[in-house]
Amino acid sequence: MNVLQAERIESVKSGSFAALSLSLAYGIIALGNQLVLAKQFEPLADLEISTAANLLLSGAIACLSGFLFGITYRYIIREDRNSHLEDGAVLAFGLVRGSAQVDVGLNFQNGFWSFGVLGVESILLFAIARFTLDLVISRGWVKPFKSS
Q1: Helix-helix angle 83-104:52-77, to 10 degrees
Q2: How far is the C-alpha of 121 from the C-alpha of 126, rounded, in Å?
Q3: Whole-number Å distance between alpha carbons of 17 and 136
Q4: What is the pLDDT along the chain (148 residues), one digit of tens a residue?
């Protein structure tokens, strides 16, 4: 197996771990939003997901976002550990995802609180994916990208 093919396999593994962890975290957060926040706090009622199709679509988007984050994160951190790059990757992906949700959510009646929850949720999701990737890289399940 050549070096390029080995790097691609490691990237797919990294993306898969991140996609799985972000999807699981999204499912737990969506359940919490559905059962607790949307029901208990009137300003957050817009967080309730109305149909199973919406939930599946949001879950698929979370999975794809996690996969892309995992691949990108592996290339960002390389072999040198720089906390600014690691934190920046989480913040960048979280803000992009959160901003897209805010853009769609401008139709929310009580947008301010919903926007805040969605923004924090997005950053938290990518932080969980980062933690997972750091764990699997430290255990040797995924090799960091080697800068030639």
Answers
A1: 160
A2: 9
A3: 8
A4: 788 898 999 999 999 999 999 999 998 888 877 776 656 656 556 666 666 777 788 889 999 999 999 999 998 887 667 788 888 889 888 888 877 776 666 665 556 666 777 778 889 999 999 999 999 999 999 998 876 5
How many Å separate Cα 67 from the centre of its chain? 8
Q: How large is the angle between the packed helices 3-32 and 52-77, nearest 10 degrees?
A: 140
How many Å from the N-terminal Cα to the C-terminal Cα in the chain?
Answer: 18
Number of Cβ within 10 Å of residue 122's Cβ equals 26
Q: How far apart are CA 137 and CA 104, in angstroms?
A: 35
